[in-house]
Structures are given as C-alpha cells and as structure tokens.
C-alpha cells in the first residue's frame, strides 16, 4: 500500500486540489455561457463554451480536468474578456476516439476551433496540459495567437523533478478503480459522453506522458508575446523555468534604468502555490490581465523621475 501511495502521488495530489471543484462548480456556473455546443474537428466532437464580452481569450484546462475547473479564475476573467472554453480531447464532454492523446494534434484542433467560431486571432491561456496545447497551437499556427500565457507548463520532459517521471510512466487503466472515490473521477463521469472510457483515458494519458519530448527549438520560434506563470513550489525545476524564459529572450541581461533591455516576454512566480492549486490562485487573474491587455506593470525609474518634474 505504501508503494501505491508513492506511485500515484502526482494524480492523487491533483485530485486533492480538484476537490475544490465541488464548491467551485457553482462558482463557475455564475457565468452563463452566451454560446455553447459542439464542433466537429479532425474526427473529434469538441465541446465548447463562450462566456462574457471583450477581447477573445481561449482558456485551456489541465489533464483529467475540464473547462469548469478554473472556477473563480474564470469568474475574474469574464469581467473584461470573452472567454472561450474547450473541453480538450477525451476530457469533460469531449469524447475519446481511436486517436491518441497528442499535444500536437490538439494544437491543430484548437486552430480549427478558433476559425470555426469566427475568430481571426485570439489570446491563449493554458494550464498544465492545456499550456502544452496552447504552446503547440502557437508554434503550429502563430497567425491564430495574439498573446500566449502558459501556466505551470514546460517545454521538455526533463523539466520535471526527476522523481516525477517514473510515477507519470505508471499512469494507466490499472489505477481507474483506485480513483473512483476522487472528485477528479466524479467530475469526469458527471459530464462525459461515455463514462466507461475513464480507464482508456488514463491509458492514453500515460502513453503521452511516457514519450520523451524537447521543444526548445520551437520555443525560439514564438514571435508573439509570451508570459510564463509558475508556483514557487511547482512540479517544474527552477532551472527549467529560468531556461524556458531565457529561450524566450528574457533574463539574458540587465534591463537598464530606462528598461531599454526589457524583453517583451514575462515570467511570474506566485508565492505559496504548487502545480496542483495554481489554476485556482486568486492572484492569477491580476497577474496575467495586464500582460494580456498589453500594459506594463511598472514605469521605469527614469519615467517616474521624469513625471515628477
């Protein structure tokens, strides 16, 4: 039993965080969609919801979650943004097919969803696996992405702390029965078109996580502004986070008194948060909105002095 507890720490820790979905679900429902339905994309019947008014923001959830998992973060975003939520492939109300779970494939799918919904270009914010999907969307279809926010997402498999990798490698159908009392499983079966597919989803998620990847060269291709957001106790190594930001052109030199060497991209570390609760952080909305709105958080020292004259 001790071995099983150790083996399933990542997903069970996530399940604890997702327990907040029970009260949060009602929070999410306070925002009524102005539009919702299904779109057929590359053989997948994707569920989507559109909330609020304003500049469009595609909001992508994490693995084994669904759109509603953002709860109060969604409530904060819809005050000024039109939020487009999609249940990712095999998650929520979007059923599995015979296709594998693939970030690259879902990146292509999101581009078609944006087009089918009538948007030319949108801002994108993704958490965890949703961050990976948003990243692939931006790499593969840069014309569709105006600004990109990646929340607790990495660019390479070695970005995780090493003890995470063998645990991720064991994810599969064998753990389905063990998870039946978790809020994660209960939220899935409450809305899934085929609840019996949960073991199959675990198998496909495990297969995806076992595949080595390194998208460092793709990071360098991103031309749109990008913001990275992590918890200070995240599942990604600090060295990986810094390298990600450097690949984006940040943290390569001193910014200068006049901020003349400031990179266009941003990095935020939120204190007191982990990978498993960052998507619910109250600080997340005020952290990302200025970036999404193209506003600078702080005037330079030189600008402040000039303003006092």
What does this structure look like?
This protein is α/β, with parallel strands linked by helices. It has a single domain (2-308), classed as Alpha/Beta hydrolase fold, catalytic domain (Rossmann fold). It has helices spanning 2-7, 9-18, 21-29, 72-77, 103-116, 129-140, 164-169, 183-191, 198-210, 216-219, 238-247, 284-292, 301-308; strands spanning 35-41, 44-51, 55-60, 81-86, 122-127, 145-151, 226-233, 266-274. It has an eight-stranded mixed β-sheet, sandwiched between helices. Helix 5 crosses helix 6 (129-140). The radius of gyration is 19 Å and the shape is globular. The protein starts with a helix and ends with a helix. 41% of the residues are buried. Mean pLDDT is 88; it is low at 1-29.
Keywords:
alpha/beta; 13 helices; eight-stranded mixed β-sheet; disordered N terminus; 309 residues; Rossmann fold
CATH architecture: 3-Layer(aba) Sandwich
Tell me the domain tally: 1
Nearest-integer average pLDDT: 88
Helical/strand content category: alpha/beta
| Largest sheet: number of strands, sense, barrel closure | 8 strands, mixed
Report Rg: 19 Å
**N-to-C SSE string, H for helix and E for strand:** HHHEEEHEHEHEHHHHEHEHH
Superfamily at the CATH H level?
Answer: Alpha/Beta hydrolase fold, catalytic domain
